[in-house]
Amino acid sequence: MNNRLTRRFILKNTENLKNLNFSIPIRYERYYINDNLRIQKKYNIYEKQVLMDNNIVLREKIDINEFEDLKKKAYKEIIRDSYVYLDDEKISIKRYYGMYEGLIRIEVKFKTEKEMKEYQRLIWMGEEITDSLLAFDRDLSKLDRELFLKELNKYI
User: Fold this and answer.
1) What is the band of 9 on the pLDDT scale with cuts at 50, 70, 90?
2) For residue 86, how many other CB atoms are within 10 A of its CB?
3) N or C: which end of the chain has fewer CB atoms below 10 A?
């Protein structure tokens, strides 16, 4: 994924979602081992992901035993569901649980810089958070509950 061509928004009001057409959610379990290494379970697929400084993610499938061993070394767990907006598949919703309960992030992916700059958010989208600590799971993983709520309250 090219995060450079993605804008992120907050969803303030879940009532706005009731009449929208979304896919069935995909559950992501992410465990952060250090700043540049996380493991992830999505469906029954286990991955080790190396996070580069430019937000490029290198993925490698691993087996359940390696996953469980690495999970024990994690400093943070992030659980979220991801939905695709079926009326415009460049839009997805990320709904967080556990420590990050309350965050519902909207991500809009673009093919070009021009398309990204000209994009007008949809009426049900809240404030843009692309440059905030809420924009990336890697940044979220460094926030405790108190700092997370302080950051979230800036936008909701």
Assistant:
1) very high
2) 11
3) N
Contact 67, 41 (CB under 8 A): yes
What pLDDT is recorded for position 18? 83
1 pLDDT higher than 60: no
Instruction: Measure the N-to-C terminal CA separation of the chain; round to a whole number of Å.
Output: 27
SS3 71: helix
Nearest to 124 by CA among 21, 25, 6, 12: 12
SS (H, E, C) 99-149: HHCCCEEEEEECCCHHHHHHCCCCCCCCCECCCCCCCCHHHHCCCCHHHHH
Q: Domains of the chain, with CATH numbers?
A: 3-153 (2.40.320.10)
Task: Report helix, strand or coil for 77.
Answer: strand
Instruction: Give me the percent of the chain exceeding a pLDDT of 70.
Output: 97
